Give the backbone structure.
Amino acid sequence: MEVLIMSRKDIEEYCTVPLLYKTALISITDYQCEFAKLKNPPYYLLQTAFDDVDNDIFVDELGRTPTES
């Protein structure tokens, strides 16, 4: 098994030709963005979107930001 991590640009380029073997792709984006445009989608495809939280606006119950110890 081979695992690849790619940017949106790279995966769109990678999928311009048909994939030769059964491939699974997990595509993650911000909820306000579109998913990658796949000319030849893989055999298995999971696309999910999350609401990104910036460190400067996230504060936990104790008033700490993620960068604090």
Strands lie at 24-30, 44-50. The chain is about 10% helix and 20% strand. Residues 8-50 form one domain. Residues 28 and 48 are 5 Å apart (CA to CA).
